[in-house]
Amino acid sequence: MKAIGAFVAISAAFSTSVLASPANIAARATSTSSSTLPAVSVKGNAFFAGNNRFYIRGVDYQPGGSSQAEDPIANVANCKRDAAEFKKLGLNTIRVYTVDNTANHDECMAALADAGIYLALDVNTPLYSINRAAPAQSYNDVYLQSIFATIDAFANYSNTLLFFSGNEVINDDSTTSCAPYVKAVTRDMRQYIGSRGYRQIPVGYSAADVDSNRFEMAQYMNCGTDDERSDFFAFNDYSWCDPSSFQISGWDKKVQQYSNYSLPLFLSEYGCNTNTRKFEEVAALYSTEMTAVYSGGLVYEYSEEGSKYGLVQINGNSVEELADFTALQTALQKTPAPSGTGGYKTSGGASQCPVQSSTWNVTGDGLPAIPAPAKKYMTQGAGKGPGLTGAGSQNAGTTSTGTASAGSGQISATSTAKASGVGSLRASELGFAPFICGFVVLVATLFGATLL
Q1: Where are its TM segments located (predicted)?
Q2: Which residues pair with 399 in a beta bridge?
Q3: DSSP secondary structure string for all residues of 91-110
Q4: CB of 388 within 8 A of CB of 64?
C-alpha cells in the first residue's frame, strides 16, 4: 500500500503541473462562469473558506416541492430572482434536492456566486436513488453513473460547497439495514472525485430526525478506514419549537453527545413550525455554546409548498415575502457569523462502529463492493447523465457482488479544478486524467494490490 501511495502522489504532482496549467485549463474551458467565491474545504471538524472558518447560513431550496422533481437552478430567470432574496436574507448557502445533470447551470451558479451563495447539492433524484425497501438491488452501476454525472456537472464550480450522498434513506429503526449502501455510495463518490482529479469537494449524508438511530448513523459514517469515512455528517432537527431554549430543546444534550465527533456537523434542515416561528435557535446555533461542534444549518424551506414552512410565496414570476422571511432575516441580522475559529477541533480520529441492537440492524463493518461495471467510470468518466427523464435505476443495472476490502477506495484528489472563468467542465474532457489514473492502476496491479 505504501508503494501505491507513492505513485498516487507522483501522479497527483504530474496532474497538478500539467493538467492545471493555465494553457490546459483555458483549452478545456466551456463557459465563463463566475468564480467570485473561494472553494470550501474541511479542516478537522469544521469547514473553511481559505483561512476563515465557514458556517453554513442557508435555506433549503426546491420550488415546486420534491414531488415535481424540477431543477430550480436550471431556470435562470427564477434563479436570479431568488438569488436577490437569498442575499436580502443574509444567506451564504442554499440546499437543492434535485437537479437535471444534463442541463447547463453556468449562469445560475454565477448569479449565486455573485450573491455570495454556495450550493449544497443532493445528487439523487426520484428515479435515481437508493430504495430503502430494496437497497441491494438499487445500488447498481446505472445508479452510480447518474450520480457521477451529477458530480461532473458541478465539480468545477468554486461555489459548489458539498454533495449529499443521500437524504433520509433511513427513516426508522427497521431501515437501518440500508446504512452499508449509503456508506458505500459516499465512498464511491469520494473515490470518483479523487479519481477524476477534482478538488476535494466534501461528501456526506443528511440523516432524518430520528432520535433512536441518528447518533449510530453518525458514528457509522465516521468509522472504518479513511477511504470509507465521510467528509461531514448532517441531520434534520425540528426539536427547537419557539418559544424554547438551548436546554428546553435538548440541543445542549446533542452538543454534549457529539462533542468528540471529528467530522464537520451541521443541520441540513431545521425550523419547527408547530408555533409561530421567530427562529430563536439561530442565536444558539452560531454561539460559542455550539460552534465547537456545529457548523451552522439550513432552514426548511424557501418557498411555501403547502406545509406552512415557506419563507416566501411564489406566484408566477413574483415572490411575496411571508412573515417567516422577516423573522429569519431579523434573526440572522442579530446573529452575525462568528469570528475566529469557534473552538473547532483541528484533528480527530475515526469513531467506533456501532454494534447491532434493536434500533441498529447492521452486522459487521464491511461495505458492498462497487458494482463491477461501474469501475470503468473511475478512469473513463461517467459520460452524459440521464437527466430527470431517464428510465430510472432502481430495477436496472448490475448489483454489487461481495464485500469491499478495507483501504480499497479513496484516491487523493488533485488540483485540476477550474480556475476563474471555467464553468461546468465534464470529467470526460480532462484529456490526460484517464491516462494518469490508468497509470496508477497499472502500477498498483504490478505491486499486487487492488486499487478499485
Answers
A1: 430-451
A2: 140
A3: -SEEEES---TTS--HHHHH
A4: no
Q: How far apart are CA 79 and CA 99, in angstroms?
A: 13
128 has pLDDT over 80 = yes
Q: What distance in Å separates the CA atoms of residue 80 and residue 111, rounded to the nearest whole number?
A: 6
Residue in 83, 72, 51 with CA at minimum distance from that of residue 305: 72
> d(Cα 125, Cα 62) in Å, to the nearest integer?
12
Q: What share of the chain is helix, strand, coil (3-state, %, to 5)?
A: 30, 15, 50
Q: Which domains does the chain have, with CATH numbers?
A: 1-19+433-452 (no CATH), 33-430 (3.20.20.80)
Q: Helix count (H) and strand count (E) of the chain?
A: 13, 13
pLDDT band at residue 432 using 50, 70 and 90 as cut-offs:
very low
What Rg value do the Cα atoms of the chain yield, rounded? Answer: 21
Instruction: Indicate the pTM of the whole model.
Output: 0.84
Q: Could you list the active site residues?
A: 168, 269
Are 89 and 328 within 8 A, CB to CB?
yes
- Whose cell is 459514517? That residue is 221
Q: What is the pLDDT of residues 209-259, one digit of tens each?
A: 999 999 999 999 999 999 999 999 999 999 999 999 999 999 999 999 999
Q: Residue 152, Cα to own-chain centre: how many angstroms?
A: 14
The residue type at 252: D
Instruction: Please tell me what DSSP assigns to residue 66.
Output: T
Mean pLDDT over each residue of the chain, to the nearest integer: 85
In the numeric block, the cell 483561512 is attached to 51
Task: Enter the C-alpha cell of residue 208.
Answer: 432524518
Contact partners, residue 387, CB within 8 Å, separation at least 6 = 100, 101, 102, 103
Instruction: Report the pLDDT value the prediction gives residue 35, as an integer from 0 to 100.
Output: 58
The band of 407, judged by pLDDT with boundaries at 50, 70 and 90, is: low
List beta partners, residue 432. Answer: none
Whole-angstrom Cα distance, residue 160 to residue 121? 8
**Who contacts 147 (Cβ-Cβ below 8 Å, separation ≥6)?**
123, 124, 128, 165, 185, 189
Give the span between the Cα atoms of 245 and 243, in whole angstroms: 7
Say yes or no to pLDDT of 408 above 90: no
